[in-house]
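Ticket 4471: requesting a sanity check on a complex prediction with NDP. Repro inputs:
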Amino acid sequence: MAAAPTPAIPSHMKAWVYSEYGKSSDVLRLDPNFPLPHLKDDQVLLKVAAASLNPVDYKRMAGFFKDTDSPLPCVPGYDVAGVVVKVGSEVKKFKAGDEVYGDINEKALDHPKVVGSLAEYTAVEEKVLAHKPPNLSFPEAAAFPLAMETAYEGLERAGFSAGKSILVLGGAGGVGTFVIQLAKHVYGASKIAATSSTGKLELLRNLGADLRIDYTKDKYEDLPEKFDVVYDTVGETERALKAIKEGGKVVTIVPPGNPPAIIFILTSDGSNLEKLRPHVENGKVKSILDPKSPFPFSQTKEAFAYLETNRATGKVVVYPIP
Ligand code: NDP
Ligand code: 2XX
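Returned structure tokens:
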């Protein structure tokens, strides 16, 4: 039987776009005829299947990073899962037809791409991508890259290792759900504590948290127990510093963070996805999709409005596109 013909790559596509900074509900609109990005030699062109949203998308849209942003109009979206349809001349790892995933912006705040993942096509450097593990669906895969890579980088920067204890602030969020799972299955933590509101404590248990702290009722810094590492995904470093043992470390991903807490902005790197691949393929490290996910492409504004409530559980995913 003859192979199905490869669909022709169009010159224009459907894309979610904003032309001025503001709230997603005010500035985001669907453009039915947005030009495809130009493909550079070190890039692959992806037919996007699924995208996941991150707070950086709405913070950038609000203009928080405008000093280092690319010019508007712009298509949001860092996380992608999709199929390679064309490769640049220098690309070595991928070929047309490969299923891949990744966070398309190597440096999150330094001139992120004009054409992000909330579009039918996006052009991406091969170094930030990895082959999609076959056990993952596209929406499951799109939920991993930025959040899991951030979780991993923070644990590395804090010097986390087997036998250490950790407290995860914001254990039910996009990043927190991965911090708990990596601490348990990749590093072999001796004890994992995590915070959430009441309704999410059961999720913390399912993810592997030994001690679940309801932040609406209890203050973790008042516990007699102290931790080797506190991983702060909420922005509470002053309190977090009171919860570490002598010699312990606080790592935070929310600015400004107070010294001596370690603060960093993630670097996207496909080799981190490759490193963690065995733990994803054996099913121990999973992406947690918010029960409202996936949002169809036409409901991208609703997906943003929901993430902006700061109450999402795990990841908010947009699928299918289109
Ligand atoms: P999410 O939108 O997924 O976080 C939402 C979660 O946060 C909810 O489940 C909510 O649970 C929880 N939460 C909110 N307030 C609290 C609180 N006081 N205590 C405990 N949990 C709380 O965000 P992400 O996890 O994707 O990102 C978290 C933060 O980190 C964002 O500010 C983001 O911009 C930043 N970030 C920074 C990066 C970096 O490189 N520096 C990289 C990635 C993210 P509940 O409903 O129970 O309150
Ligand atoms: O808030 C932020 C976010 O989500 C990312 C990726 O960088 C900023 C600032 C640390």
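Notes from triage: The longest strand covers residues 43-52. Leaving this open until the requester confirms.
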